[in-house]
Amino acid sequence: MQNSGDVFIDNNTPLSYSISTQGRSATWKENVLRNSAVTTIPYSFTSAGIHHIKVGVNQTGIVIDYIEIIKN
Predict the structure, then answer these.
(1) Where is 15: in which H helix or E strand?
(2) Is 11 helix (H, G, I), strand (E, B) or coil?
(3) What's the CA gap between 45 and 22, in Å, rounded?
(4) Torsions phi, psi of 54, nearest 5?
(5) What's the CA gap between 29 and 41, in Å, rounded?
(6) Model pTM above 0.85
(7) What are phi and psi of 33, to 5 degrees?
(8) Are 39 and 66 in contact (CB under 8 A)?
(9) Alpha-carbon distances, residue 33 vs 26, 30, 37, 39, 65 (angstroms)
(10) Please, what's the largest Cα pairwise distance for the chain?
């Protein structure tokens, strides 16, 4: 089973993400050394104001440590 999920922003179409890796790839090694998996989902807001973000995962045991929003 792949570790994945969806991000819903303002109830729009979900943006999917995956934190799965293949074998002992470079990404897998980085995840093990830092004891976490990091993913990026690019998104551009079309209006100012309050927005709602909902993050879903496909299995138990996945913990979200933090969400970082970067203003470009």
Answers:
(1) strand 15-18
(2) coil
(3) 32
(4) -125, 125
(5) 21
(6) no
(7) -65, -35
(8) no
(9) 11, 5, 10, 16, 16
(10) 43
Contact of 2 with 13, CB cutoff 8 Å: no
CB 8 within 8 A of CB 56: yes
Per-residue tokens: 71: 């203003």
Q: Which two tokens stand for residue 34?
A: 């830092």
The pLDDT tens digits of the residues spanning 11-46 come to 899 999 888 888 999 989 998 999 988 889 989 888
Give every CB contact of residue 20 below 8 A, 6+ residues apart in sequence.
Answer: 2, 3, 4
| Sequence spans of domains, the chain | 4-57
Amino acid identity of residue 11, one-letter, is N
Q: Give me 36's structure tokens.
A: 């976490």
Q: Transcribe 36-67 into DSSP letters.
A: S---------SS-S---EEEEESSTT------
